[in-house]
Design goal:
With about 350 residues, this protein is an alpha/beta fold. It has a single domain, classed as LarA, N-terminal domain (Rossmann fold, 3-Layer(aba) Sandwich), CATH 3.40.50.11440. The strands form two sheets. Strands 1, 2, 3, 4, 5, 8, 9, 10, 11, 12 and 13 form an eleven-stranded mixed β-sheet that branches. The chain has a two-stranded antiparallel ribbon with strand order 6-7. Helix 2 packs parallel to helix 3 and helix 9 packs across helix 12. The radius of gyration is 19 Å and the shape is globular. The N and C termini lie far apart (about 50 Å).
């Protein structure tokens, strides 16, 4: 799109997000053979829950439990890891998780892959280099994209009447153009107002801090708003993941997102329902003892989750989640977590 056409469509750089109508268009889309299915009692989301201390094995077993058929066959895949900073896991996505997910999707005959992110606590390119992501991507024959380097026309604006975002938000077109989007998140709390940063919060890295030729700081708005947690949920209306993998081998139960009190939570979780996976993540944090904000109220009453359910992004109760396990240890672990989600 030429610059003149871009400005005409969105009313000029200063008012870039005042008229974009697309905000809730993507949440209704269906990707492949849905893991979530409708029954008489509502949406049932299948979530793989694997007790493990080995990330690579955990990822492999979790994806196998989901029993994908041709969902990724010859599909262009975009992978969104957690590279908010270069801090060690759970501060950022572990390379064993990223590489194993790529290998597993290749076994499912996937097409070209792209890895991309925007760091909120550092220079994105420097973060990728510090974590050896560029080397990993080259070795795995995957592309990388740094959202900070995108041009004005590379962003898609999202806004809608009733949005909690004053001027909406923007997502890279390269993400939205992918046939399949994969969200790789960690298990941790968030001391800057999010309360917890799991798969819904990981999507904040998809949203622009600034769009070229627009001085507005969208992340400043987010982090200064009393609606921050509900705004996080809104970002997720822009896309539907084909796969979410949560690394819970280790977790931050306090602090976060870069550093915090770390525990060995020993679990790998995967599915397609962000709300279900995050609800399980919150229950896990409570199981190990966490912050008063994360402990408060029922799991599905947490603002990120409640807003996401309201927007139709996933399961609204533990009864709508089917846990897939790979053995006795995993099943016993689930039995400890499920009561915390009621």
């Amino acid at each position: 799109m030429k610059r003149r056409e871009w400005l005409k469509k969105f009313g000029g750089a200063g008012a870039l997000f005042l008229a974009a109508p697309e905000m809730f268009a993507c949440q209704k889309s269906v990707t492949g053979n849905e893991i979530a299915r409708r029954t008489g009692s509502g949406v049932v989301s299948k979530v793989a829950f694997v007790k493990t201390s080995n990330r690579a094995e955990g990822v492999k077993r979790a994806i196998e439990l989901l029993n994908f058929k041709d969902e990724f066959k010859e599909k262009n895949v975009f992978l969104k890891p957690n590279y908010n900073s270069s801090d060690p896991t759970p501060g950022s996505t572990h390379n064993d998780v990223l590489r194993t997910v790529i290998d597993e999707l290749r076994d499912l005959k996937s097409g070209p892959m792209t890895i991309g992110d925007r760091s909120g606590m550092g220079d994105t390119q420097a973060v990728l280099e510090a974590l050896d992501v560029n080397y990993l991507a080259k070795d795995a024959k995957a592309k990388t994209v740094v959202f900070d380097d995108l041009k004005e026309e590379d962003w898609q604006a999202f806004h809608s009447k009733g949005s909690l975002w004053e001027k909406g938000f923007a997502i890279p077109k390269t993400v939205l153009a992918a046939d399949r989007i994969v969200n790789l998140c960690c298990l941790k709390t968030h001391r800057y107002g999010g309360h917890f940063t799991l798969s819904l919060k990981n999507s904040v890295g998809l949203a622009a801090k600034r769009v070229p030729n627009n001085d507005y700081n969208f992340m400043r708005e987010l982090h200064s708003s009393s609606n921050q947690r509900r705004m996080i949920a809104e970002i997720n209306t822009a896309y539907k993941p084909a796969l979410v993998v949560m690394d819970g081998v280790e977790a931050f139960t306090d602090g976060g997102p870069a550093k915090g009190k770390k525990v060995r939570s020993e679990v790998m979780i995967a599915g397609t329902d962000r709300v279900a996976i995050d609800a399980i993540g919150v229950a896990l944090l409570r199981h190990f003892g966490t912050t008063s904000a994360v402990e408060k109220g029922k799991v599905f009453e947490q603002e990120q989750l409640a807003q996401a359910v309201k927007l139709g992004l996933g399961a609204g109760s533990v009864d709508q989640i089917e846990f897939l396990t790979d053995g006795k240890e995993s099943a016993e672990y689930v039995n400890k977590i499920k009561p915390l989600m009621i």
